[in-house]
Amino acid sequence: MAILDCEAEGLNPKETAERIRGLDAKVVQVFALGINPSASSTTKMPFIIELCKLVKAEIGGLHINALPEQSLKETGALGIASSHIEKLEGIAWDLLPMEKYRAHNWHCLDGSPRQPYGVIYTSLGCPFNCSFCNIHALYGNRGVRYRNPRDVVDEIGLLINEYKVRNIKIIDELFTLNKEHIYAICDLIIDRGYDLNMWAYARVGLLDIVLLRRMRQAGIRWLGYGFESANPTVLEGVGKTYGDVDKTIEMTREAGINIAGNFIFGLPDDDMASMQATLNWAKSCNFEWVNFYVAMAYPGSKLYEDAIKNDTPLPPTWDAYSQYSPNIVPLPTKYLSGQDVLKFRDEAFVDYFPNPAYQRMIEQKFGKQAVRQIDEMLKWKIR
Question: pTM here?
Answer without folding.
Answer: 0.94
